[in-house]
Amino acid sequence: MTRDRLYYTAVDNPKTSPGGLALQGKDASRDVQPPQLSRWRRMQIPVIAWAAYWLVRLLGPTMRVEVIGVHNAIQFRDSREPAIGAFWHRSIFPAIWIWRNRGIVVLNTVNFDGQWTRRTIERLGFGTAQGSSSRGGIAGLTTMAEKLAEGKHVGFTIDGPRGPRYVAKPGPVILARRTGKPISVFHIGLERAHTFQKSWDLFQIPYPFSRAVMFIAPPIRVPPDADSEVIKDSLTQMQEALERVRDAAETWFQLSEREKDCVRDEWRQPRFVRRPVAAGSKAG
């Protein structure tokens, strides 16, 4: 059987995703000012937050999740080394259920979606660093570096908060260079879900009792003395890893059981991860 490899066209769509979930939580330590909102919008925030929270609490427990490449995550637990998670905005809904109550600190936008999302996921055990690629990004990265130093995992919705879809931003690479911590890339595919076709990220909400699969890639490390070329190479490596786990997860439920067993065996094997050459060093 020939598997169709998924190639997606990145789009720059100004429409807000109905998910709007740039993960967020309690632990803001930088003063990033939110935009001014009307009274009506401010009144909507707690209502939407509670509705979203209960939707996650109702649908999350019904998901049946299989993890492929779980050893790539277990190594962080065994070594007690915090990691920098990176995943596409499309997968936020299942991700906040799977990774709940672990104290993971995530970069969240301070716009309207970010404000109600913050209230939602802080109830699910996440921390926060205020900022995004377009507003307060440096302050957010500084907070995340502090949380990594405290031993906490951090996470990015790597094409959020508004796209382009499936184009990775450099935040995790910059943070990995600064802190020496590894980048851990994953994607979650759903067997049955509602896809918001008009949203920029093709956001998904699982149907009740849907099966889900999470692929976790080998960690990526960035040398602390990386120059601009090494950083560019690391960003390319992260983009490739994000595409690989996305394609594997999104095609998973099209496979036969025999093909799934082959993929499981492939992902159990230790994989060589190409590390960018440190600045000033020579190959050979």
Topology:
Layout: H1 39-59, E1 64-68, H2 71-79, E2 84-87, H3 92-98, E3 105-108, H4 112-122, E4 127-130, H5 137-149, E5 154-157, H6 171-179, E6 183-190, E7 193-195, E8 204-206, E9 211-216, H7 228-251, H8 257-268
Parallel strand pairs: 1-9, 2-5, 2-6, 3-4, 3-5
Antiparallel strand pairs: 6-9, 7-8
Offer a concise description of the structure:
The chain has 284 residues and is an alpha/beta fold.
What distance lies between the first and last C-alpha atoms, to the nearest angstrom? 41 Å
Report helical residue fraction: 25-40%
* Tally of separate helices: 8
- CATH architecture group name: 3-Layer(aba) Sandwich
Q: Could you state the order of secondary-structure elements as H and E?
A: HEHEHEHEHEHEEEEHH
Quote the average pLDDT.
85
Shape: globular
Main sheet: which strands, in order across? 1-9-6-2-5-3-4
Task: Specify Rg, calculated over alpha carbons.
Answer: 18 Å
Catalogue the unreliable spans: 1-30
**Total discrete domains:** 1
Major β-sheet, in short?
Answer: 7 strands, mixed
Number of strands: 9
CATH class: Alpha Beta
Strand residue content: 5-15%
Account of the 3D structure:
There is one protein chain. By secondary structure, the chain is of the alpha/beta class. It has a single domain (39-268), classed as 3-Layer(aba) Sandwich (Glycerol-3-phosphate (1)-acyltransferase). It has helices at 39-59, 71-79, 92-98, 112-122, 137-149, 171-179, 228-251, 257-268, and strands at residues 64-68, 84-87, 105-108, 127-130, 154-157, 183-190, 193-195, 204-206, 211-216. The strands form two sheets. Strands 1-9-6-2-5-3-4 form a seven-stranded mixed β-sheet, sandwiched between helices. Strands 7-8 form a two-stranded antiparallel ribbon. A hairpin with an 8-residue loop joins strand 7 (193-195) and strand 8 (204-206). Helix 1 packs across helix 4 and helix 5 (137-149) crosses helix 6. The radius of gyration is 18 Å and the shape is globular.
